[in-house]
Write a structure and sequence with these properties.
Elements: E1 11-20, E2 37-42, E3 52-58, E4 61-68, E5 71-80, E6 83-93, E7 98-103, E8 106-112, E9 134-137, E10 148-149, E11 152-160, E12 182-186, E13 195-196, E14 207-210, E15 220-221, E16 239-240, E17 252-253, E18 266-268, E19 278-282
Parallel strand pairs: 2-10
Antiparallel strand pairs: 1-6, 1-11, 2-3, 2-9, 3-4, 4-5, 6-7, 7-8, 9-19, 11-12, 11-18, 13-14, 14-19, 15-18, 16-17
Length: about 300
């Protein structure tokens, strides 16, 4: 079973971010997005998958990488996003393979990427069942030697199954709405603990916060890109437990472990500590056979 967040061809990923250059010092990374300060990681180890992608900060600019087999494209933006201000980021991928990047509603680059499906393949054999079949926010999912995590704020991340933007658009002034093309939406309004609620219809692509040492509340903030607080979109659908296990079907629970408040809160990787934070979102419900693999794509 594949979760809706496991997008295949055309999609839009958009979110708000706030970061500084001092805490995201990765240099230019022409060799690949996975050498930057990583915001989104849908990479895999080894061959045999349909494709993968990721988003990172390199040389204070956003980079987006998409690869299918040996066909890899790297889009590097022109706008400095590590100025300590909130920025709305949108990344689109079309059926044709074209990838576009928008910063605050303005085009920031486009590239002709590889054509084909890019979802995580069901029943894919992997020696990394606790990392490969997840979408990870905030760091490299495998702790690959030399990788860098994102160190800053992240808010209101929406994943859609369509291309939402092809030209310049007005920078949003409110949280992303839910519609029929929204496959996952993370408000980050929990303010505590480790369950990350999916506010899309059905709410089944729930994530888990993996905190550094100490109480997970250290990773939450009331800082927000919006002028006022919001009431998060509720969902009546049961969600998985706070620890999704990719080798077995997650056990549903009837209620969340936290009650969101009306003040928007945001996941933060504290600048004063070099240990990274991750949010893990399952792409599939279970894995089957496993075989060894050691080559990164």
């Amino acid at each position: 079973m594949s979760y809706p967040v496991n997008v295949s061809s055309a999609f839009t990923i958009e979110f708000w971010m706030k970061a500084t250059a001092a805490h995201n010092p990765a240099p230019a990374c022409p060799g690949g997005w996975y050498t930057g300060n990583i915001l989104i990681d849908r990479d895999v180890f080894g061959a045999g998958d349909y494709g993968d992608y990721g988003v990172a900060i390199c040389n204070q600019r956003l980079v987006v990488g998409v690869s299918i087999g040996s066909d890899e494209a790297l889009l590097t933006g022109a706008t400095i996003v590590t100025d300590g201000q909130w920025h709305h980021i949108a990344i689109t991928r079309a059926e044709s393979g074209q990838v576009r990047l928008f910063v605050n509603g303005q085009p920031d680059g486009a590239i002709a990427g590889p054509v084909g499906r890019i979802d995580y393949r069901l029943n894919r054999a992997t020696a990394y069942p606790t990392s490969d079949p997840f979408l990870v926010l905030g760091a490299e999912k495998h702790d690959y030697p030399g990788s860098r995590h994102y160190n800053g704020w992240l808010d209101d991340l929406r994943i859609s199954r369509v291309v939402r933007y092809t030209d310049a658009f007005l920078r949003p002034t409110a949280p992303h709405p839910v519609d029929a093309d929204t496959v996952a939406l993370y408000r980050f309004d929990e303010g505590a603990r480790t369950v990350i609620t999916d506010s899309a219809t059905g709410g089944i692509s729930t994530g888990e916060l993996k905190p550094r040492n100490g109480n997970p509340t250290q990773h939450w903030s009331t800082d927000t890109p919006f002028s006022g607080g919001i009431t998060p979109t509720s969902t009546s659908t049961p969600v998985p437990t706070a620890t999704p296990v990719p080798t077995a079907t997650a056990t549903p629970v009837s209620t969340l472990t936290t009650t969101p408040t009306t003040t928007l809160t945001t996941v933060i990787a504290p600048p004063e500590n070099d240990q990274n934070i991750r949010v893990y979102i399952p792409l599939i419900s279970r894995l089957h056979r496993v075989q060894a693999s050691s080559t990164q794509e």
